[in-house]
Amino acid sequence: MFALLGNIEFTVAGGITGMEQRGTANWAEHARIKGKPLLEWIGEGLDEINLSIELHPKLGDPEKRWQALREAKSKHEPLALVLGNGDYLGPYVIADNSLQHRRLSATGQLTSATVQLSLREYTGAFTRKVLATPGLLNPALTGTASVTSKLPRVVSKFLPSPSTTQMLIGHAKSAANVLQAGKNLYDQVKSGNASMILGQVPQLLGVTERAIAPLQGLTKAAGLFQDGADLAKLGEDVLGSVTGARASLNPVDLGNIVERFDASRASLDQALTTMDGARTRLAGLTAQVLTRRA
Q1: pLDDT tens column, 215-229
Q2: Does an H or E element contain 176, and which?
Q3: So where are the chain's domains?
């Protein structure tokens, strides 16, 4: 999946050939006597996104796909825009759509065309719709205890229980966030002297400890996931590096803290590198959840 606008899915195989993003700033121009005008920034402009889409029978029914875009525009509603890698860009409205006919049948039926779809950022009140459909990720719960917990009762009764894929993604995101927070703390501490580093050991142990539960959850969820052997190994490998980072700091004293800290930091860096290596794999799972296929 390339992107999802509301319930409209765009894929490269389905004809997406280009995407252009545009951002502007609003400046007021004030005339000055015997001088060039002065510009004054008054605010940011609305972001715009332009999509180029090819319509062809091999990519789906051109008439139906064009009609779907026209109907979405006619409803005058902001729609959530999500990229295939899971990034939520926010609400957008369809500001303009144009159809350039390439080929028509003998009876005037559309067989090939190019669509230019213009989206504009919507800054008004907007609530992202969460449909009670199995496999739909609840963005309000991503990375929270509700997602990472194994107990169904913590999920609202108005929402479906998270799927195995959702649980796996939630654990992975939680672990990645904790590891990044740990790296930030290590980077702050590394410039200190031995005494200062020694004083920060409890905080360093604390942040690495918080990564253990989501990594264990990731490994367990991956074990229940079809074709999840690589993700189970990911959880085990990252957990091994985190455990190594903790072991390097216990026990420590003023004489060995600098050496032990460097070893611990190297293990944490390895944990982050391993987790980053699975980013594409996890993004693919996120896309499946967003399109309600997992």
Answers
A1: 998 999 888 877 788
A2: helix 164-189
A3: 3-121, 145-290
